[in-house]
Amino acid sequence: MKMKKGQAAMEFLMTYGWAILVVMIVIAALWYFGVLTPTTFLPERCTLGTGIACKDHKINAQKDEIYLTLVNGLGEGIIITKINITGDGNNYFQQCNVIPKTDPNCHNLCLDGCECDYPGGSQTGIHIPNGGEETINISCSSITNYNGKAKAKIYITYYKDTSSEVMSKTIEGELLAKAG
């Protein structure tokens, strides 16, 4: 009796073992070529915490730049002092910094060294009035020629324009977009 049970198990493995091996190789090949990567099936999105909305986004891999259009819905004007973008376990978002805009009158567009007069005094940053929107250009050092969907965390540090930088808050979000 023991001989027949062992023989049946061996016949089963020999008969179906090859089929199981082929299926495993096909699954490994699909995973290797990115067909089974979950991000390829997910829609593009840019989400932030309550109060600041990400209206639009774009990753320009040829120029190593990310564009975010932010809308202020906090009920008061804000000054954005810092935007940090970090990759989610990857190396294609490194050294991402906001590219400062310059305006001789310093209206709503300054960052890093441009001091503007707002209701709360002289502040440095990008001013977005209540209900207003601003497109911000962010430069990264290592997304050139990246092809595919990129996932990253966004951290925006801001304070109300009637307050001071001491009262800064950081809002966290996520970006999932195709680099192009």
Strand order of the largest sheet: 1-11-10-4-8
Beta-strand residue percentage = 35-45%
- Enter the CATH topology name of the largest domain: Immunoglobulin-like
Q: Largest sheet, if any?
A: 5 strands, antiparallel
Structural class: alpha+beta
Write down the CATH class of the largest domain.
Answer: Mainly Beta
Explain what this protein looks like in three dimensions:
By secondary structure, the protein is of the alpha+beta class. The chain has 2 domains: 1-36; 42-179, Immunoglobulin-like (Sandwich), CATH 2.60.40. Helices cover 19% and strands 42% of the residues. It contains 2 helices and 11 strands. The strands form 3 sheets. Strands 1-11-10-4-8 form a 5-stranded antiparallel β-sheet, with no helix packed on it. Strand 6 and strand 7 (121-124) form a beta hairpin. The longest helix has 31 residues, at 2-32. Residues 102-121 have low confidence and may be disordered.
List the helices and strands and how they pair.
Layout: H1 2-32, H2 38-41, E1 45-48, E2 52-60, E3 65-72, E4 78-87, E5 97-98, E6 115-118, E7 121-124, E8 126-128, E9 133-139, E10 148-160, E11 169-179
Antiparallel strand pairs: 1-11, 2-3, 3-9, 4-8, 4-10, 5-9, 6-7, 10-11
Outline:
This protein has 180 residues and is α+β, with helices and mostly antiparallel strands.
Features:
Immunoglobulin-like, 4-stranded antiparallel beta sheet, 180 residues, 2 helices, alpha+beta, 2 domains, 5-stranded antiparallel beta sheet
